[in-house]
């Protein structure tokens, strides 16, 4: 892959290189490679290595561990979009007899199924997948650790079940489906279930001495959908662009946005840390910036992909060590460096080419009781409602084509907004999920439940 590094300013490029150089040196990583994506394509890549001579570039494969889960989630969402399954379906409906069938597809995607974090011993990441040939070997005799749907509890076996679900409904092995439905359409030619040269070797670095030993490379077998993949900084940069924008050949922009939306109840510690989970994607709030993506690790390898949709900047960082550099922090820093040094330039404002007269009639000031709100008609054929002062409930609404609108986010997500008219056709008020919005606060004759005091507004005598 050829990147256009000239698109970033020299100072930005140096800051990026400095950050990964510090990470590789202080984290004592044999090698570290990174890429930055802006406007949907790679604009920078860099690498640091302990080996003199040619270092890794964006085409060298590393194991990416649990970033594999995001690829598996994409396959499941494709099945949902095709109508083959519903996210609310219990697993038992499509894959009977697992012993974990009460968990829904959505709960498996969001790690709220209550399943154990790991497969039974021996440690699955360092032993051959042939030791766990069946789903029963992955789940064990007591697959659940928590009640289904009650809490977020990360589960590798849960994604093994999702991979088996894909195989059952597609009638083909998970890796074949992945190749056909995701890797080929997105041109991820250097992403595979087994290493292809050139690839990095995985190393363990001694915690108290500057020495290393090689880590074993195991085929994960049934556990493959949870962590098998090898990929490159270049391929993951393209995948990050897909997660930001979607691609109709794979998933629509609306569906990848759904994947980026929180879907798991957060633990108390998670609320404090600002982290949660969507559908196959980790979500975190870091220094005022919302980041989505996924991390990954297997013996000998660390990986992270993170994306700021608001800034339209993503970063990928890969290293070939079992522990060392904190790649989540490094990737977030790479995003921050670009977003702050070269902030996104907004598209020019342009007026609407045409406007729906019924929507324009709603524009202006409204009152919910005594709370003042403004309703605006926007250039994306939506209407937005937000408080005129302070914080409060706000949302955008999409027209349904029948004189009603549906809320898209926040408290009003999915709630109906209806323009209520008088018998003569004139606009009376807005009904938003039963809340009445009027042009004047408690105006005389306003259609407010409970009525309006006939003596009207007054002072204290």
Describe the structure.
The protein is α+β, with helices and mostly antiparallel strands. 26% of the residues lie in helices and 22% in strands. Mean pLDDT is 93; it is low at 1-5.
Quick structural summary:
By secondary structure, the protein is an alpha+beta fold. The chain contains 13 helices and 19 strands.
Shape: globular
Describe the sheet with the most strands: 8 strands, antiparallel
Mean pLDDT: 93
Query: Would you report the number of β strands?
Result: 19
Strands across the major sheet, in which order? 12-13-14-15-16-17-18-19
Radius of gyration: 26 Å
Provide the low-confidence segments as ranges. Answer: 1-5
SS summary, helix count: 13
- The residue fraction in helices comes out at 25-40%
Give the end-to-end Cα distance, rounded to a whole number of Å. Answer: 78 Å
Going by helix content, strand content and strand pairing, the class is alpha+beta
User: What fraction of residues sit in β-strands?
Assistant: 15-25%
Q: What are the salient characteristics of this protein?
A:
single chain, 461 residues, alpha+beta, eight-stranded antiparallel sheet, seven-stranded antiparallel sheet
Topology of helices and strands:
Layout lengths: L9 H18 L3 E8 L2 E9 L12 E2 L3 H15 L9 H4 L10 H5 L25 H5 L16 H15 L3 H10 L19 E3 L6 E3 L9 H4 L2 E2 L1 H13 L7 H7 L8 H6 L1 E3 L4 E5 L2 E10 L2 E8 L4 E7 L7 H15 L15 H4 L3 E5 L2 E7 L4 E6 L7 E5 L4 E4 L8 E6 L5 E6 L2 E3 L24
Helix pairs in contact: 1-12, 2-6, 2-7
